[in-house]
Amino acid sequence: MGWMAWTLPSALFFITIACMLAAMTIFEVLRPCVERKGFLPIRTTRGDRLFIGLLGSAYIHLFFIGGTELAIWYPFGISIVWLITVLRWG
């Protein structure tokens, strides 16, 4: 993996995403999901909400990186809250 010039933060990011996907797969096998309607305007499954939450987190980070000089920890905290909110009530 040396050809990719991994840094610790980028490696942790992708390891975290892989662990989330593995956990979602195991959870889906143990407790199959049914579509439901939360505050999002569409009916979603757990996987849909995870994807929407991760996509929203990416946009939050892009906004902060491109539009502010704040430390990356601020959008990280906002993204965690956003992801938990979408997974729980989306």
Compute the number of helices: 3
> What is the H-and-E element order?
HHH
Let me know the average pLDDT.
Answer: 88
- Poorly predicted regions are none
Transmembrane segments: 6-30, 50-66
Pfam families: DUF2160
Organism: Enterovibrio qingdaonensis
Protein name: DUF2160 domain-containing protein
Features:
transmembrane, transmembrane helix, membrane, DUF2160 domain-containing protein, 69% helix, 90 residues
Task: Give a structural overview.
The chain has helices at residues 8-30, 46-67, 73-89. The chain is mainly α and 90 residues long. Helix 2 runs antiparallel to helix 3 (73-89). The longest helix has 23 residues, at 8-30. The radius of gyration is 15 Å and the shape is flat.
Fold blueprint:
Blueprint: H1 8-30, H2 46-67, H3 73-89
In short:
The chain has 90 residues and is mainly alpha-helical. It has three helices and no strands.
